[in-house]
Amino acid sequence: MSNKLTLAIVVALSLAACGQAAKPRSAASDAPPPGKGKGFNHDPFPSTYHAYPGVPTALVGATVYDGEGSRIDNGTVLFADGKVTAVGGADLAIPAGSTVIDGKGKWVTPGVIDIHSHLGDYPSPGVQALSDGNEATGPVTADVWAEHSVWPQDPGFSRALANGGVTTLQILPGSANLMGGRSVLLKNVYARTAQGMKFPGAPYGLKMACGENPKRVYGSKGRQPSTRMGNIAVDRQTWAKAAEYKRKWDKYEEKGGEPPARDIAMDTLMGVLSGEILIQNHCYRADEMANVIDMSKEFGYHVSAFHHAVEAYKIADLLKANGVCASVWADWYGFKMESYDGIPENLAILQKAGACVTIHSDDQNGIQRLNQEAGKALASGRRAGIEISDELAWTWLAIAPAKALGIADKTGSLKAGKMADVVLWNGNPFSVYTRPEKVWIDGAMLYDAYNPKLRPISDFELGQPGEGDVK
Amino acid sequence: MKHLLLAAAALIAAPLSAETIAITGGTVAIGDGSQPIRGGTVVIANGRVVAAGAGVAVPAGARVVDATGKWVSPGIVAPISTLGIVDGYGMNETNDARTKGSPFSAAIDVSTSINTSGQGIATERSSGTTRAFVVPAAGNTMFGGQGAVIDLGADVDPVTKPRAFQYVELGEDAGDHGGGTRPAAHVLLRAALAAAQNPAQAGWLDKDSLITKQDALALGPVIRGTMPLLVHVERVADIRAALALKADYPAIKLVLVGATEGWRIADQIAAAKVPVIAAAITDLPERFETLAATQSNVGRLTKAGVLVAISNVDASEGPYESYLTQFAGNLVAITRIPGATGLDWGQAFATITSKPAETIGMGGEIGSLRPGRHADVVIWDGDPLEIASAPVAIWIDGVAQPMTSRQTRLRDRYLDPTEKALPKAYEY
């Protein structure tokens, strides 16, 4: 939501309040309706992130993956004022005054997007006092927002940047609950506050979870859900309530009258039903994903992505037909019953079927190597006879997660006008021997392997053993 | 179906293969820290390595396997594994790693219960892992018990060496298992070692003792130095406390596990001649005992002269043995990062082959292609540390292994996910 719009709402609300003070009851029923989606402020914790200074830059001579499946050998990538200005071959004219960086023998890609992270809400050090990822006090906690748990001093952000080239990440609540709360999208730039890291203009997500975790957590407390059928039952009952809540607000916003009572959890679910908030659904098994898809149709919402989705390969056609992405690990399997059938060809089979697929980490270590994880998935696919080009595989880290997060118009590929979120790799990023050399976010160089001053150190690490070390 | 028959045949028995095999033309990595040799030959016979390297003659009558364009190496040795004692962490029913509600700890011997039927063994074997140290986790006390060295062969006889080492937690995890704190754990450790040294005077008739007679007796080989003691410690203070045990028990053969902050006192570890099974590339202060974590730990320890193997201790990416090659490759990658200390290729590959074996004194048996070692040989389709590479043939004790697993069966069933005339259950 733009600042102007926010301002307009605030003004409208204060006007309404003034009117109410003068003539309490009749004024409310006479007041003009606020308009659809304008009954209350949808952005009470607005982003204060701003792009840091950069210089007009030309990366030349590198192999470029644009993040949408194209490759340019000996390519040129230009950015200035925080935005990509042009991408082309060796013949692309370089504007006067650009800082030219030789990328010969190196690779340039859009910054890595991790659609599934818990950095900040399960930070390092992993002490109980910082364990803020699961509000495991009830199976439906759609009222909680992950951003209110994000500790912006998590050392994990710096590792994801320097070792992983991660520029954007979605922080999700955990999976203890059926509806775990709102996610938040961050630019991977340290700030004093979570708002200072918040990706401007990104839609929210609602974290949902299928399967073993909710039924185990609440079953062990002797309450619903204790089974998979209990999971779906609680979900449906909650969606039915949300539909009712939405009806009341739609009526008020379109026709005016007395505003309905606010319910913070229902606000989020209503946001899903109106298409404003995206569903990010933890779900492992093929049969459960099918159940969730039917449930989404019953209540009129859309699942943006199934996360973990170790059995997505079994229903690649179903996912494709329903336009649902699968966000997966390269090769995790067998650590719990619902991951028993994980196979390393999961991504490749989904890609072959034409389904939307992304890599993800769900892990403070894995997020440092998502390029390698995608490389493993690519190699497994090729061994199974599925031919996928390197540049197409890079979409798993770039435009595919950007689409599943609703930010494909802003980042996720090297296209003119998009955020200059760029990584210069010191070799082929699908090789184990390659690391980021430089990382830019919104055109600002925020990591440089050759400059110790461009290696962020969080408050937590300041003055502690190992401060400033190459991690 | 042919695959099935082969697999079934392999399951019937674990014969030591007498066949002489010469693998020729490949890039040979011995695993001893040396650099790979192009166009080398590996000869195995009677389940052991005969010779490997450049200019090795093919013996008369040997079956020749052409590995031109491929790599040939010893199988990966995974120290710190739960293969055979856990089928899945989220499935408590299958977990024999963590003992609950037993009076015993150090006496526990996992070699009695290695299950070769779990899907993990075949899957991880397919990634090139041929031997593993199976480690029981701390339960009743901070002692996990006696671990075993196993092979990952497709047979029912997995144990290479039972009671190969004792495992103990002396860092943050000791608190949960030894009486609440590190100092308390040290009291219990010292009491247990004293009991092991002088069983006649031990007070195990005391009902409150956490150390039973069986536990104390199991620690006898530890203080006599015939059974290595693997000590999980991460921070400087805990490493130093572990090293101090040698003052009172000079024969003890310590192996540090984890040792994330080891680089800060690398010279002391080297001087004590204590090997390390390190957390591979952990670089986060995930605990207060790992504040100084860096991926340079292994490189810096190695540079100081410490014998270092790597493991997936502290790695959150599952307990997958298949990650070891990737971790070792990352240790090579950081040699190109200014300020970091990594390993060269030969050193890195040794951290997952010969070095793990050497930490527990088994370097003469497993972990390299030096003559006389168990013939655990892998042919890879490329550089084994590289992301895209995978094994194409595997021998364990000279016996060719099946390359299939549940994963390959699922893959084959679902390469085309759509259902045909009959349901998927009829496709096999």
Write the layout of secondary structure elements.
The complex is a heterodimer of chains A (471) and B (428).
Chain A: H1 3-22, H2 24-30, E1 57-65, E2 71-80, E3 83-88, E4 99-102, E5 107-110, E6 112-117, H3 156-162, E7 166-171, E8 179-182, E9 184-187, E10 205-209, H4 212-219, H5 228-255, H6 264-273, E11 278-283, H7 286-299, E12 303-308, H8 316-322, E13 325-328, H9 346-352, E14 357-359, H10 370-383, H11 390-393, H12 399-404, E15 422-425, E16 436-441, E17 444-448
Parallel strand pairs in A: 1-4, 1-5, 6-7, 10-11, 11-12, 12-13, 13-14
Antiparallel strand pairs in A: 1-2, 2-3, 5-15, 7-9, 8-10, 15-16, 16-17
Helix pairs in contact in A: 1-2, 5-6, 5-7, 9-10
Chain B: H1 2-12, E1 21-28, E2 37-45, E3 48-53, E4 63-66, E5 71-74, E6 76-81, H2 119-126, E7 129-134, E8 143-151, E9 159-169, H3 172-178, H4 182-197, H5 213-218, H6 220-224, E10 229-233, H7 236-243, H8 245-248, E11 254-258, H9 266-271, E12 276-279, H10 297-303, E13 308-311, H11 323-333, H12 345-350, H13 354-359, E14 377-380, E15 391-396, E16 399-400, H14 406-414
Explain the overall architecture.
The complex is a heterodimer of chains A (471) and B (428). Chain A has a domain of 304 residues: TIM Barrel (Alpha-Beta Barrel). Chain A is 28% helix and 20% strand. In chain A, the strands form three sheets. In chain A, strands 1, 2, 3, 4, 5, 15, 16 and 17 form an eight-stranded mixed beta sheet that branches. A six-stranded mixed beta sheet of chain A has the order 8-10-11-12-13-14. Chain B has 428 residues and is an alpha/beta fold. Chain B folds into two domains: 106 residues, Urease, subunit C, domain 1; 291 residues, Metal-dependent hydrolases (TIM Barrel, Alpha-Beta Barrel), CATH 3.20.20.140. Chain B is built from 14 helices and 16 strands. In chain B, strands 1, 2, 3, 4, 5, 14, 15 and 16 form an eight-stranded mixed beta sheet that branches. In chain B, strands 6-7-8-9-10-11-12-13 form an eight-stranded mixed beta sheet. In chain B, α3 packs across α4. Chain B is globular, with a radius of gyration of 22 Å. Classes of the chains: A alpha/beta (471), B alpha/beta (428). Chains A and B meet through α10 of A and α2, α11 and α14 of B. Chain B: It holds the Pfam family Amidohydro_3. Chain B: It comes from Sphingomonas montanisoli. Chain B: Keywords: Hydrolase, Signal.
